[in-house]
Amino acid sequence: MPIDPQRLADRYQFFSASEISAFHQQFSSFDKDSKGSVHYRDLTTVATKAGVAFQDVVSKLQQLKLTKSDDTVDFESFLKATSVVKEEKGAKKVDKQKITLHGASENTTHTINEDEKESFVAHINQQLAYDKDVKHRLPIDKSTMQIFTEAKDGLILAKLINDSVPNTIDERALNMGKKLSPFQMHENNNVVVNSAKAIGCSVVNIGATDLIEGREHLILGLIWQIIKMGLSAKVDIKVHPELFRLLEPGETLEEFLKLPTEQILLRWFNYHLKKSGWNRTVKNFSSDVKDAENYTILLNQLSPETCSRAPLREPDVYKRAEQVLENADKLGCRKYLTAKTLTDGNSKLNFAFVANLFNTHPGLEKLTEAEMSELDDWLFNSEGDREARAFALWLNSLGVEPFVNNLFDDLTDGLVLLQAIDYVHPGMVEWKKVNRPATSKFKKVENTNYVVLLGKALKFTLVGIQGSDIVDANKTLTLGLVWQLMRDHVLQTLKKLSTASKEVTDTDILAWANETAARSGNWRAFRSTSAKMTSFKDNGFRSGVFLLALLNGMKKGIVNEELVTDGVSDDDAKMNAKYAISIARKLGATIFVLPEDIVEVKPKMILTFVGTLMGIRVTA
What we know:
53% helix, 29 helices
């Protein structure tokens, strides 16, 4: 039965409207007949979510005579009893800005920010409004917890990933429909979680089951990461060559582009403040922007005819913030922030506002031909970064700290590599020998020499590699070391999963792949290509057909043969490869391969793809 969360929140002031909405969703899951009431014994989980003991609620229901003759309880009676229990225990009334939800026990709490939830839901409503598959489910109510119910089947999150980083998910691999089975939802959420990893989100503690169960703090955290990835992806010199303008004297383009997105946006902000003659700078997206003065100057600098400096004459900071947002609206950029969140200094929402402003109104002068030529030379020489990206994503998937943004610069102290070795070979690293932190170059070299020593013990090919090469961020040697560690991870995983715990070789993986692909059936597309691969360099991988046959051999019917082409043209081969990657993620595989890696037959990437599939097959 529908409720009015705000009305109930006004009456029962220990809970916000969003919290009441979350409790009602849990309550309704036990109300199978939609009568508006449940048996008091079914209140265990919702009582825990509300942060009170089940027995205390039951006792209070009986004391206040709120149970019906058939021992059922309606939702408002539950709220009343719970509120009385909280009041008697001296609980504080709710902070309307924060939503506090309890976990597996009443003593475990997770807090989510109401303002952020509303902003993220508004983003979803706007970005997906015209999507043919989910538009009928929009708009999602910002004021309630509806988003967490809508996220359960994986479709909204999958669409959001593709909106942020286009073509990440081949939507042909998704299960569509008004009512999906739990298994179909699990498959979709496998795609979501593994695709989120592939675009660089940190999802070490998030699984498909968490999304299906509607774990609010995990879902909201994932949504923010996906939105942030989309905003950050456009702060790219390939999209905005004019970023070249932000280089400082003596700084190389390579050094500049190693900066985190936040630092690039702050530099852009300060570039315009300086150009305007303003005497302030911004160093963060919280305290330095919350008075709205710097925003006033930025918007005026971007569009002086449209956005005046009049807000500076407004003494009331809240009214000034509202005037700033009215100026942003004139530019079509009133998004993410409200006057409240601006003046509160919410760093996430201010970052999103500035990133959106940069992406739509960079306000930087176009490059000259000479500058463009210099940029083109750099871009041409940086094309080898795809492999480094995959290796960085793999390291992050292990849960290493700190998060790896740049494969070469972030490994120089050896600590991430030692964590990775310890993950692949638990107990191998003697941490008492490790400098933590490694504050000097000498200590970094000691750590990286230890990495090389352990690598040699693992029989890696490390001829000519010294710890100082890693400290100096030698690209070729670092890539070679990380690749061998990544490959070892695949092989060790397969060894642990095999019944005999025997060593697994590349030849074993290839033999398994050929045998499994042969079970896929007599496809037209499969018949027209090489049905057996001789190595991971075999050009037969190029079309993507073999990998799709392999996937279908693992689970009959997982691949729709009607969607498979012969893969002769580059476009057809890329479509097959994209489909194969999404199907692999649907089966639960963590894949960092790009379609281009398959079409170009990159043997390292194909080995990790097939080896990972073999690992989940053995597990199954």
